[in-house]
Design goal:
This protein is mainly alpha-helical and about 230 residues long. About 50% of the residues lie in helices and about 5% in strands. Strand 1 (about 35-40) and strand 2 (about 45) form a beta hairpin.
Length: about 230
């Protein structure tokens, strides 16, 4: 029995949250395959939002006690590669609700641990943990971003490289920066905390455009954030 699409589709913020939590990998701890694939002409994502409790009343791990809206919420979704999505739905007895929720919870924690989500003893140590991430993002923007001279060259491959690096470098780096900053707000001034709020909105808008398909550009990188905790 395969998963069926519910009448209520997940909200865009739910989709973005799932992709952000995944870190770019399938949430099955025995798989961890990359969900972004680089092709010659483009980068595509193969991640699929799988329902823990089926979207329909008769699907895998179905539960008629839940509403269609509840089945479309973040708590009932897990991001998997197509192969794992198919397996968990065709062998539902081997993949109960509790196991899939454990996958999701543990995967998110592994990503957070890898991103260095800890409070540093000093402001200087916190800044040091941010510098390489901020510098890499700035280097990528200056070399591949939309304001380079390559934007005037219709045959340039730079725009494609820029989009690829957004997904493979900038978005993950932004997430790391947010996690580190959130763990070290005690070292920040009031103005720096304000800048952090602005940066968070920038990250949300940036992901909405490049992962969620939003047409508008949204808020820009806040001036001065590159010097936070400096």
């Amino acid at each position: 029995m395969t998963c069926v699409k519910g009448r209520i589709n997940p909200a865009n913020v739910t989709k973005l949250r799932l992709f952000a939590d995944s870190g770019g990998y399938c949430s099955n701890p025995q798989c961890l395959s990359e969900i972004f694939v680089d092709l010659e002409s483009q980068t595509v994502h193969i991640g699929e939002m799988a329902h823990v409790i089926s979207a329909g009343d008769k699907g895998p791990r179905s539960d008629t006690g839940t509403t269609p809206e509840q089945r479309s919420e973040y708590e009932n979704l897990i991001l998997l590669c197509p192969r794992c999505h198919t397996i968990i739905d065709k062998a539902e007895e081997d993949y109960p609700v509790e196991l899939l929720l454990d996958w999701k919870r543990n995967h998110k924690q592994v990503i957070a641990d890898g991103f260095g989500a800890r409070e540093f003893r000093t402001r200087e140590e916190a800044r040091q943990s941010l510098e390489s991430l901020l510098e890499e993002n700035n280097f990528i923007f200056q070399k591949y971003g939309p304001m380079t001279d390559e934007r005037f060259n219709p045959e340039s491959q730079m725009p494609k490289q820029w989009l690829r690096k957004i997904r493979t470098k900038i978005i993950p780096n932004n997430r790391k920066i947010l996690i580190i900053c959130d763990a070290n707000t005690t070292h920040m001034t009031a103005e720096e905390r304000r800048l952090l709020h602005s940066f968070r909105q920038h990250v949300d808008d940036f992901e909405a455009k490049h992962l969620g398909g939003a047409e508008e550009n949204g808020s820009q990188f806040p001036a001065g954030f590159d010097r936070i905790l400096n």
